[in-house]
Amino acid sequence: MSFTLEKVVPWGRSYDEYVNMFALTEADLELRILSCGDGPAAFNAELTKRGGNIVSIDPVYVFDVTQIRNRIDETYDAVMAQMQKNQGDYVWESIPTVEQLGHVRMSAMETFLGDFEAGKQNGRYIAGELPVLPFEEEQFDVALSSHFLFLYSAHLSAEFHLQALREMLRVAQEVRVFPLLMLNGALSSHLAFVKQELANYGFHLEIKRVLYEFQRGGNEMLVIKKA
After folding, report:
1. Where in the sequence is the domain holding 21, given as residue range(s)?
2. Is residue 150 one of the residues assigned to a domain?
3. From edge to edge, which strands make up the β-sheet containing 220-225?
4. Using the 8-state DSSP alphabet, how is residue 97 labeled?
5. What is the CATH classification number for the domain harbouring 149?
6. What pTM does this model have?
7. How far apart (Å, rounded) are the C-alpha atoms in residues 28 and 115?
8. Distance CA 95, CA 104 (A)
9. N or C, fewer C-beta in 10 Å, the chain?
10. Taking Cα atoms as reference points, which of 158, 164, 168, 160 lies closest to residue 196?
11. Domain count, the chain
12. 149 located within any domain
């Protein structure tokens, strides 16, 4: 695997953020969930504690807990400095300050780190990455992608997005992607292409407003379902 830890800037989101980003209901949280590109998020650990059925996949899971923790320590100050510099790009409501953001993110990552070794042994954290998933067809009810697809449209092609989403739809009945914005805050340049292509394949697509908004204007998710 050519993936190296030096390429990673770990930034884990909380359980509550996942619930709000993807508008997950109590019924949703009882489904078989695949979460793609989770990194050091707390969602898997917290949902597992609540009796949920979840698998997270991310290339960073090839490393051990000490390596991931060290990388968090190496990058945290730089990330916080960037957030301080660009705080006008964000909505400071549910998280009121940059300092509070740091607390929320570190708490989420500590939750992940405390769960990682056991979760990896139990098959809840799997090293891998889109657009190829090591799962059987319809192994999951819903697949989630947080802050990867669409956000990095400047780095990942429209064809990559289409291939990744079709792969997620191979292994799950439904896919939810959040946000639909790129890093610069503009709507993804790939969204129209992806919607048209997936509609041509017979999938049902809907853009849904969610209650969560941190990146300014980032309060919508794409929901894709099999017909």
Report:
1. 9-225
2. yes
3. 125-126, 53-57, 32-36, 140-146, 172-178, 220-225, 204-209
4. S
5. 3.40.50.150
6. 0.96
7. 22
8. 8
9. C
10. 158
11. 1
12. yes
CA-wise closest residue to 100 among 166, 14, 33, 161: 14
pLDDT (tens digit per residue) in 21-72 = 999 999 999 999 999 999 999 999 999 999 999 999 999 999 999 999 999 9
CA distance 14 to 17: 5
Flag whether 2 is in a domain: no
pLDDT (tens digit, 9 = 90+) per residue, 101-112?
999 999 999 999
In the block, tokens 């607390």 appear at: 103
**pLDDT of res. 1:** 44
Question: Mean pLDDT score of the chain, rounded to an integer?
Answer: 96
Cα separation of 185 and 200, whole Å?
28
* pLDDT computed for residue 4 by the predictor: 79
- Cβ contacts of 90 within 8 Å, gap of 6 or more: 83, 214, 215, 216
Tell me the C-alpha distance between 130 and 126, whole Å. 12
Decide if 3 is inside a domain: no
Residues 6+ apart with CB under 8 A from 20: 210, 211, 212
